[in-house]
Amino acid sequence: MKVLNPRLFDLNPSRRIDKQIIGEQRNEIIIIDDLFLYPLEIKQIIDDLFYTSDKIVRGQSPCWRSLIPMNGQQISRELVELNWERYEIREKSVKPFWSVDQYIDHSDIIEEKNYHPHIDTYDLFSTPYLAVVIYMNKRRLHGGTQFLRDNEIGESIHNKLDMGKLYEKQIEINRAKPWDYNPNEWQRYHLVPMKFNRLISYRTNMMHSIYTDGEYYRESSRKTITTTF
């Protein structure tokens, strides 16, 4: 029987926190470097997990996905405190299982609609949740998370009308560079580069997507731990 060490996901006391204000709407993103105290042990577990393309597990994600039991309360409290003054975000429940995603360029589960800039699910009639992404590639670091501005909608979704506009868009995809969108429609105004053991968080109504060149992660996947709260 394999048992997870209860201290496996302890946070590093020497972690470094950076708050950035981005875009025309001056939204805040949080970057925490050297997050986990035992990142190599976590990476090994991620490498040994079983992954599925089942839509029940991955939703609309273009990634192979697994789930891992992870105590995120300490991360949650820290992010809430960092966002308290600016957004008055009250702590919501953290999912007991966090998603572990492995993106592979040109994977057979990547449907065309999954390429699109998107927002992470949240209740339109309450304060948006926070999305959390933790990069777990030790090597093969490329791209990151891009934040995008639509010429018609702007940088984030605030109502059902804008949400409808986003999901009705027929976005032309360049298969050679699927994450480079038509510059006549979209502007990439910020990119957070991948870095091992780096956490980024942002409000879930901000439009964003993966960024790679569409060829880099064919042999070795892009690995992330994700959740919202």
What features would you describe in this structure?
This protein is α+β, with helices and mostly antiparallel strands. The protein contains four helices and ten strands. It has helices at 39-48, 55-58, 73-87, 160-168; strands spanning 16-22, 27-33, 64-69, 97-103, 130-135, 144-150, 186-193, 198-203, 208-211, 222-228. The strands form two sheets. Strands 1-2-8-5-10-4-3 form a seven-stranded antiparallel β-sheet, covered by helices on one side. A three-stranded antiparallel β-sheet has the order 7-6-9, with no helix packed on it. The mean pLDDT is 86.
The outline comes out as globular
The side-by-side strand order for the widest beta sheet comes to: 1-2-8-5-10-4-3
Helix content: 10-25%
Uncertain spans, ≥5 residues at pLDDT below 50? none
Task: List the total number of helices.
Answer: 4
In angstroms, what separates the terminal alpha carbons? Answer: 31 Å
DSSP strand content: 25-35%
Structural class by sheet pairing and helices: alpha+beta
How many strands, what sense, and barrel or not for the largest sheet? 7 strands, antiparallel
Average pLDDT: 86
Tally of strands: 10
Could you tell me the radius of gyration in angstroms?
17 Å
SSE topology string: EEHHEHEEEHEEEE
